[in-house]
Amino acid sequence: MIVFDLECLNGHTFEGWFEDKEDLEKQQEQGILACPVCETTSVVQKLHPIAIKKSSSNMTQRALQASQEAMAELTEKVAEYVEKNFENVGSDFTKQALKMHYGAEDYRNIKGTTTKEEDKVLAKEGVPVFKVPVIKNPKDDLN
Ligand SMILES: [Zn+2]
């Protein structure tokens, strides 16, 4: 038995078990293969996302590289902005954010760390929090 990822005419995706590829094709032809959601028999094997081969062409290679560089630069800028404009409150972040949320303290830009549990609390209380990737300071590695 093998499993195939299938997709119907209406974009529903599901899995089907078959003896082999021929069995799948036979069921398609006979119209007994139907989408479990909308019951259409227009079902095809789902195409997997296209992988880009590294050596495909110079153009693709360059485009990929350019977008990676732009991404890295953007992340760096965000990190730099946060570094300069946000007060580091460390693990106090959740407490401070909640205080501001309930007006106990004035709004200001803060950054800090949260645990998974704290993330849940913040989400439950509806506190908007942005997570930015942290660029590791090379100095941190020295100790
Ligand atoms: Zn469907």
Summarize the structure in words.
The longest helix is centred in the middle third of the chain and has 28 residues, at 58-85. The chain is elongated, with a radius of gyration of 25 Å. The protein has helices spanning 21-30, 58-85, 93-101, 116-125, and strands spanning 2-8, 13-18, 43-45, 87-90, 110-112. With 143 residues, the protein is of the alpha+beta class. The strands form 2 sheets. A 3-stranded antiparallel beta sheet has the order 2-1-3. It is built from 4 helices and 5 strands; from the N terminus they run ββαβαβαβα. Zinc ion binds at residues 8, 10, 12, 35, 37-38, 40.
Write the layout of secondary structure elements.
Blueprint: E1 2-8, E2 13-18, H1 21-30, E3 43-45, H2 58-85, E4 87-90, H3 93-101, E5 110-112, H4 116-125
Parallel strand pairs: 4-5
Antiparallel strand pairs: 1-2, 1-3
Bound molecules: zinc ion.
Zinc ion binds at residues 8, 10, 12, 35, 37-38, 40.
